[in-house]
Design goal:
binds manganese (II) ion; 12 strands; NAD; ICDH/IPMDH; 2 domains; single chain; Isopropylmalate Dehydrogenase; metal ion binding; 42% helix; ten-stranded mixed β-sheet; metal-binding; 344 residues; 19% strand; oxidoreductase; binds nicotinamide-adenine-dinucleotide; alpha/beta; binds 3-isopropylmalic acid
Length: 344
């Protein structure tokens, strides 16, 4: 068996800052892992060439075992073509149809919830990742007139919905909560409901429930302890995963895995973006990127190292050896060094 080979796409803003620290952690736990860095894929390249991610880049990514990404996005590039040409292209072309975003309370002091009994969030948001409102299907009619009409289709396919709900049931420990807006959005809503009933029938040992997305968002902040696995469409899952991250202790520490469970290929990235408001100041929290690396390692035969990273993260946060967003006073680099010190 050959060793693990990963591609790394640092991206923009705090992306390169947090990825550098995840790579320092990788070097500490698994220095044998081969790393191929694609540092040309960023907003500057997009502004110059109109295509940040080339076919060659994609081929390099496909030839590796997994991709670790920092963040894509810059205020100088307003066009959605940039994120669509990099992040969404990767998710769509590699058919990474599951976006798995665990939200586990890092420390009681970080919960924004008033009631201590309800703070213990420990759930996974499973976000559909290849269709929904993100397909780019639509258009603008009667542009530049007072009757201008912009249409973005919300696409649900039986194939897409049934496979992501099936995945949610496969990873559930006790319950799957299916989230949609079937009370108002008729066609996709009916399809989500039917795929839910079919999957529930295949998994009689897993309890199941349903919430409309507005109530799901509310419940994530009123009683998140009731959730195990939440499965939702692309746009709903995007929003719910930021809410869940905040309830678990903060966006800066939230990891994610974009997966094709059929091939095992994954794109691992923090849930946060490029945070232009703090980029270059040295305070970006590296834990989301480091925890994403841990997810990558766990999925690729390095479970012990992944576990050690998780334990080290918790321990640094317990001791407030972390960045200001988590109540610490460390820089990005010092926070990662603290994790590495805990590993030793
Ligand atoms: P954001 O996630 O970048 O930032 C939201 C807020 O959280 C900001 O106040 C930021 O300072 C803070 N924050 C985020 N990550 C942090 C960290 N690691 N440590 C401390 N604080 C952190 O969201 P945004 O401002 O809406 O987006 C900025 C850019 O990033 C946009 O171009 C957006 O499209 C892009 N984006 C990219 C991804 C991705 O690449 N996966 C994800 C989300 C947003
Ligand atoms: C995320 C981000 C992206 C998304 C943006 C940058 C297109 O918010 O990964 O959550 O909406 O999927
Ligand atoms: Mn998002």
């Amino acid at each position: 068996m050959t060793g693990l080979r990963i591609t790394v796409l640092p991206g923009d803003g705090i992306g390169p800052e947090v990825v550098a620290q995840a790579l320092a952690v990788l070097d500490a736990v698994a220095p044998e892992v081969e790393v191929d860095v694609l540092d040309r894929v960023n907003a500057t390249t997009f502004a110059r060439t109109g295509a940040a991610l080339t076919d060659d880049d994609l081929a390099r990514i496909r030839a590796s075992d997994a991709l670790l990404l920092g963040a894509i996005g810059d205020p100088s590039v307003r066009s959605p073509d940039y994120a669509r040409g990099v992040l969404l292209r990767l998710r769509f072309e590699l058919d990474l149809y599951v976006n798995q975003r665990p939200a586990v309370l890092l420390h009681a002091r970080l919960s924004p919830l008033r009631d201590p009994a309800r703070r213990g969030i420990d759930c996974v948001i499973v976000r559909e990742n290849t269709e929904g409102a993100y397909t780019g299907i639509g258009g603008t009619l009667r542009k530049w007139t007072p009757h201008e009409t912009a249409i973005d289709a919300d696409v649900s396919t039986y194939h897409g919905v049934s496979r992501v709900i099936e995945h949610a049931f496969r990873i559930a420990r006790r319950e799957v909560c299916v989230v949609d807006k079937a009370n108002a959005v008729p066609f996709g809503g009916e399809l989500w409901q039917r795929c839910w009933r079919e999957a529930a029938g295949r998994h009689p040992g897993i309890a199941t429930s349903h919430l409309y997305v507005d109530v799901a968002a509310m419940t994530l902040v009123s009683d998140p302890t009731r959730f195990d696995v939440v499965v939702a469409s692309n746009a709903h899952g995007d929003i719910l995963s930021d809410v869940a991250a905040a309830v678990a202790g903060g966006l800066g520490a939230a990891p994610s895995a974009n997966l094709d469970p059929a091939t095992g290929f994954g794109l691992y990235e923090p849930v946060h973006g490029s945070a232009p408001d703090i980029a270059g100041t040295g305070v970006a929290n590296p834990l989301g990127a480091i925890a994403s690396l841990a997810m990558l390692l766990a999925d690729h035969g390095h479970e012990d190292q992944a576990q050690a990273i998780q334990t080290a993260i918790r321990s640094t946060v317990d001791k407030r050896r972390c960045t200001p967003d988590l109540g610490g006073a460390l820089t990005t680099e010092q926070a990662a060094a603290a994790v590495i010190a805990e590993l030793a």
